[in-house]
Design brief:
190 residues; two-stranded antiparallel ribbon; 4% strand; disordered N terminus; disordered C terminus
């Protein structure tokens, strides 16, 4: 429950000033995320494909956002038939972006500017801010982490990741809602 309240607090505070991760995540939690990422980054294709296949299973309406990956049948209805190579490439790209965020956890200004830019990019791909709801994407990401980490994905690690994910969503949402924000100025705390 604390994660939801903290995310709501972050979301309300997401006005014009940059948010700082160290006010939301402890150094110990940052370390848990970075240590677990060191394990997961060894097999980004498996992690990414696991996350996206779960996402397509649990949120089938989101398949429409991936027309190059999810194929249409003769009557233009989406099917689970996916272009596995393209899915893997996209999944690895997304996981690499997540990795870049994880590696920037100690530099909120840089992290915020990157996440806002990613949000702005997603607007051009018809992703709406409400699609970033934790209830939609988090279960798939959480599932992928659990599959790859196994017993190492304990409660404190899962909690730390959920906090990072909430933070990422809030910053991306800022970019989606403000597609003209100059992230270089935001990075300077203006």
């Amino acid at each position: 429950m604390g994660n939801v309240q903290a995310a709501a607090c972050l979301d309300r505070a997401g006005g014009s000033k940059a948010q700082y991760l160290n006010k939301y995540l402890s150094p110990e939690q940052i370390q848990l995320v970075q240590d677990s990422w060191d394990v997961m980054k060894e097999d980004l294709p498996t992690l990414g494909v696991t996350v996206f296949l779960r996402l397509f299973e649990t949120e089938p309406d989101l398949k429409r956002l991936f027309p190059k990956i999810v194929r249409l049948n003769e009557v233009s209805q989406l099917e689970m038939d996916v272009d596995k190579d393209m899915l893997q490439r996209h999944a690895v790209t997304v996981m690499e972006g997540l990795g870049a965020a994880v590696e920037s956890l100690e530099d909120s200004d840089f992290l915020n500017s990157v996440l806002i830019s990613i949000g702005q990019t997603h607007v051009r791909r018809n992703v709406k801010p409400q699609m970033l709801k934790v209830s939609r994407l988090w279960p798939s990401l959480n599932h992928g982490f659990s599959q790859v980490l196994g017993a190492r994905y304990d409660t404190p690690t899962a909690d730390a990741w959920r906090r990072v994910f909430n933070y990422i969503c809030v910053q991306m949402k800022r970019g989606m809602e403000n597609p003209d924000i100059d992230t270089s100025e935001d990075a300077m705390g203006s």
